[in-house]
Each structure stands twice: as structure tokens, then as C-alpha cells.
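Our preliminary data section would be incomplete without showing what the modeling component actually yields. Below, a chain of 307 amino acids is followed by its predicted structure, encoded as C-alpha cells that our downstream tools consume directly.
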Amino acid sequence: MQSTDLEFFLTVSREASIGGAAARLNTAQSNVTNRIKKLEADLGVILFSRHSRGVKLTAAGERLLPFAAEVGRLLQDARSAVTATDAPRGPLQIGTMETTMALRLRERLVNFAGLYPDVDLTLRTGTTAELTEQVLQQELEGAYVCGPVAHPRLVARRAFQETLAVVAGPDVTSLEGFTDRGHANIFVFRRGCSYRQRLEVLLARRGIAVARMLEYGSLDAILACVSAGMGLTLLPTDLVEAHARDHRLSLLPLPEEEANVETVFIRRAQVYVSPALTAFLEVAGPPVAAARDAREAPLSHMQEAGE
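Predicted structure:
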């Protein structure tokens, strides 16, 4: 069993097809097939079951997967540690929720690019569930996600404190109307979004059923639908206020235990931290002491920019 065999195994498991793995590895499908057959022969087990749409890990393959990922990580860390210089440079892949990107990171990214032009920063947006999995699978060096995060293979560092509010159209003054009605449409990001999950829970606590759940990939699209009075969403209050010029919206405040949420930066535990990632965290932080614990004067109702 060689490290290259494990690399092929990992790629096939991620792509769920021989052809996809071959394209990712820039090699022939026959080469991938032969590598997998060799690994299966060495181990004396079948690692993948074949079907019309590709391949799927067997029980033995599932058991091998974390060990193969760990070997791949250790080899990559060794390579990075040996070839690294003290100066931050090279590729850096970071993930973030779209709300964090829009509200907290734009200026910090500009500052980072100016300070470290030799770092090739790639920023990928996604939901908390997606980004957490991508960090675990070593596709990202780290990501901003909604906390809390408790995982034995991850380190979570507090980055920002947010105050959430239910967002509705301009004529809505409270959630009581929806309680009386018994249902509401909600506008959310795709499955895996932590704010979506929180909104479902807090509505259920108030006896409000979700009539329709409409998924959008754009923050502006969600706010436009809510502004038109079509339903509700849940977002950080600072973010909604930043879009006040474009949308007429109402912010419906929540009790502290439902409103306060932390955004944390996660990375894999016990791995080599590159100079590029270290520099990024120093610039993009912020330090815990610099994060606001709460808004000074949250608005309960907002119709026009400036109100």
C-alpha cells in the first residue's frame, strides 16, 4: 500500500466516480481503475461498489477513509513545512458564510491583499455544514462558520459576535400576527445554513408552521422577497441595516438567548499552520477583545434608510 494508492482512493471517494477522479488527477481512467484494484488486492477487501451512476464506498472503504485522509494530510503538512519560508506566500483557500463575507470581511480582505501580495487567496462561500465538511476534507485551510462548533478534529476560534433578528416586510411590526395566522413563508439559503435552522426552531417555539420554504443562493434575492411582504428570514441586524438603502424592511428583535450568535473560524486540529494562514488570521481576525458583544442600539423597526 503506497501513498499514491491512497491519494487515488481518496479522490475516487470524493468524486464518487472513476471518470471524475481521473479528470481531477489528470490521468487516464484505466490508471485510476488499476490503482484501486491494486489497493484492493493488497488489502484483500473490496473498497468500492459499482453502480450505473458511479461508485460508492463499501463498509471496508468507509473504514479506510479516515486513515487515508490522515496520511494525505501528514504528507501535505510535511511537504509544506519543508518548503515553506517565513514570508507568507503561495495558495490559501478560506471559506466563509455569505453573510460574514458581506458584513465583516470585505475591508479586511483588501487590507490583507495589500499587505501580502504574494499570497494567492481564494475565498469560497457556503453554508456552515458545507464549509465544515470542506475543512475536514482538507479542501479549505479554514472557514468562518456559525458557532458553536465542537469536533475532535477541529479548532474553533471566536471571530465575531452577531445579533440576529427576524426580518419581515415594511408593514410588519411583530411576530404575533404570524402566530395568530399559524404559518409563514420563509426565505433561506440552501440546506446546511445555520440561520435557516435557527429560524425554523424559533418559529416552532411560537407555534408558527412553515408554509413554504424557498431557497435562494443570493442575499439580495432573499431581501427583495422579504421586502415585498412575501415572508420572513433571519439575519444579523448589522447586515440588514447595511442593505437599508435598497430594501424596505422591518427588524423584529428576539430575546437575547435567541438573538446572540458567534461566528467562529475553524481549522483542522494538530496540523501545520502555514505562514499565509497565520498572516490571514492576524489581519482578518479580529482579536476577541475587538469584537462587539452586542449592538449598542438595535432598531426594532426600519422602513427607510436612515430611520
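The longest strand covers residues 154-168. The first helix runs from residue 3 to 15. Preliminary results of this kind motivate Aim 1 of the renewal.
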